Amino acid sequence: MAGAAFRKPGVEIVPLSRETLQDRVYRHVTELILDGSIVPGEMVTVQSLADAFGVSPMPVREALRRLTAANALMVVSGRSIGIPALSRARLVDLRNVRFEIEAIAAAWAAERIDDQGIARLGQHLAALEQANAAGDVKSYLRANYAFHFSIYRAAGSENILNIIENLWLQISPYFNMLHDSGNYSTANEHHQAMFAALRNRDVEAVRRAIRADIDAAFDVLVDLLK
Predict the structure, then answer these.
(1) Fewest Cβ atoms closer than 10 Å to its Cβ: which of 42, 120, 167, 191?
(2) CA dist 62 to 31, 70, 83, 109, 164, Å?
(3) Confidence of residue 19 (pLDDT cuts 50, 70, 90)
(4) Alpha-carbon gap, residue 156 to 152, rounded angstroms
């Protein structure tokens, strides 16, 4: 075998990780966007991210290039980035695609989720309720991301998960703007309905709850864009 030539007594060969530094930085920045840590109107510099992650600017620039290509970020100047402006046409398009794709993932999750998955969802739901009661926007957005993506992971499809993540990279920063409208309370009613539907393995009910949640946020954002 080819690997035998490198094997020596007392030396353990450990497989190299395929994840590069660029991949790790990309993941970190992605999570900052998805959990609402980078908000519309906020400028973030390459150097500030590099300092925060303890890396050189090079892997940060590569991560930002990938996220800019995915329409999740835009270059404001040579050294800073921000969340792209959201037009009504883009918002409508995101709503329409999410309406179909996320409903499919939720339906698959209803057929495949196990008891441990239901228990995790219950924990995320409790965190959502607590954050909303405290008026803690950051904690609410983190719990919201965790709740929804626990459902989408339970669908068991890496492809659909990647599609949904790309959609959320474009829309989730704007969830910061929903708090003052009372949408977080409305959303939690839909989250309760999703949880009940998944616990009962009710495919149609979870489709309805996901779509109602998407539409409620869409209605608020459309009004704000006016």
Answers:
(1) 42
(2) 16, 13, 17, 34, 22
(3) low
(4) 8
